[in-house]
Design a protein that fits this description.
alpha/beta, 459 residues, Lyase, Ornithine Decarboxylase, Chain A, domain 1, 23 strands, globular
Length: 459
């Protein structure tokens, strides 16, 4: 959305954000009023956004499948590592999706969701990542429980041997295998994940083909560079689909291609990805190659984490002070980027950033600084020396970082000890009630000094 202020400055706002009375609103929620009432730093999550993103992606794939007469199906999986919180996963499961997990403790998370009735009979579970012995035992326990449709994605030959040696005589197991992309000239780096095509074929012929209890149903890959319109992604996809066709000729039980994740979210105000186009190109690329190879097109699986949850959460800070530097203006926030938005310094992640109030004033460029003593605690944290535009005003000022819902709590260590003892922010949950009225719930209060001292052994 583009909004024009009285001073005729044009700004690009992400969907769901709006300007009224020179203040920033999110779905008709006055963020200035919210910040004053709840205090800052403040993180809020709007749960209905999760269902909107899932439904949007399902619709894009289903439209592409219908338009091309693609004979396979599409299944959406949510990656728990993007945000493990129960309120996130409960909401995502309402959209009838699968769940992707990546560690031993994720098994206990799934068991808890089963006990509480959120994971229904037959819910699809993909088990990714390197499998420690605890993780392997948890996977086998989940399989024997026979509540979920569990598919472990084999990451090493030893993992496959474990399943072969521990499967019960009355149990059947569908497995997938992850392809290591290092063999591709189009893939720019060495990867530790998965098996080479040669090793996959060997594992199938030696350990699966004549095993009556284990079936190889899925081929999985993940392009760490993310899904984009760049040639590199499409070169990798084409190569993997051709290998799928080769493996399908050897293994008629192979039915599914898991293309992983990497679907972009809006990380700056000016980004405008054509996601329907990307989806159409995925479907048409797979279809075209399978037709060339005379192989039935596979069912398509995606694993979207950041795409699912990033845009559901906004983080708001108060500007404590504005300081004039030699060459730039500094705005000191009442939090820390290292603590509250660690991706900003770890991978130089950018977010849409916008002033919450005083929008009638002229904007000036600022670099924002956190409360820690670390020189890396700044935003933007990029070589291009970008800035954040803030109103030129002496009035109280708040600033919103949009689309911060993926990975930040996990990377900063929610509820733990952070750099310079900067406390975790208050976090509120916003959902729609039975009458579509918004319901506000406090998930966690701002961390107290007593809580921090107790962790450190002082109490």
């Amino acid at each position: 959305m583009k909004e024009k202020l009285l001073i005729h400055q044009e700004v690009n706002l992400p969907n769901a954000f709006d300007i009224k009375d020179f203040k920033l609103f999110y779905r008709d929620i006055d963020l200035f009023r919210l910040s004053k009432k709840q205090g800052t730093p403040l993180r809020f999550t709007y749960l209905p956004s999760i269902l909107e993103k899932i439904d949007e992606m399902k619709s894009n794939f289903n439209k592409a499948i219908r338009k091309t007469s693609y004979q396979g199906t599409y299944t959406y999986y949510y990656c728990t590592k993007s945000s493990h919180f129960q309120h996130i996963i409960k909401k995502a499961l309402q959209a009838d999706i699968g769940i992707e997990i990546s560690s031993a403790y994720d098994i206990d998370l799934i068991q808890s969701l089963i006990q509480d009735g959120y994971v229904k009979k037959g819910t699809k579970i993909i088990c990714n990542g390197y499998k420690t012995s605890d993780y392997q035992r948890g996977i086998m326990s989940l399989i024997k429980q026979n509540h979920c449709a569990v598919t472990p994605m084999v990451d090493s030959p030893s993992e496959l041997i474990y399943y072969c040696n521990n499967i019960n005589s009355n149990t059947s197991l569908n497995v997938g295998i992850r392809v290591n992309l290092s063999f591709l000239s189009a893939y720019p780096k060495e990867s530790r994940f998965g098996l080479s095509p040669e090793d996959i074929i060997t594992c199938y012929q030696c350990d699966i083909k004549h095993n009556q209890q284990i079936t190889l149903t899925t081929l999985h890959f993940f392009n760490e560079n993310g899904l984009s319109s760049d040639d590199q992604y499409w070169d990798v996809l084409e190569a993997i689909v051709r290998f799928y066709c080769q493996l399908k000729r050897l293994n008629p039980h192979l039915t599914t291609l898991d293309i992983g994740g990497g679907m972009p979210f809006q990380s700056t105000a000016n980004e405008n990805f054509d996601i329907p186009y990307l989806v159409r190109r995925i479907v048409s690329t797979i279809l075209g190659i399978c037709q060339q190879e005379c192989v039935p097109e596979p069912d398509i699986v995606t694993e979207f984490g950041k795409y699912t949850v990033a845009e559901a959460t906004t983080t708001i800070f108060k500007i404590q002070e504005k300081k004039q530097g030699e060459k730039i203006n500094w705005g000191i926030i009442d939090g820390s980027f290292i603590t509250h938005l660690p991706d900003t310094w770890a991978i130089q992640q950018e977010y849409p950033v916008f002033a919450v109030n005083n929008l009638q004033e002229e904007n000036r460029p600022f670099i924002l600084g956190g409360l820690t003593c670390d020189s890396a605690d700044v935003y933007p944290n990029v070589k291009e020396h970008k800035t954040v535009m803030l109103p030129h005003s002496d009035q109280e000022q708040f600033v919103a970082f949009m689309h911060t819902g993926a990975y930040q709590e996990a990377l900063s260590g929610f509820g733990g000890v952070n750099h310079c003892l900067i406390p975790s922010p208050k976090h509120i949950i916003i959902d729609q009630g039975d009458n579509d009225e918004l319901e506000f719930t406090t998930f966690s209060e701002k961390q107290t000094s007593d809580q921090l001292l107790q962790i450190l052994g002082y109490c």
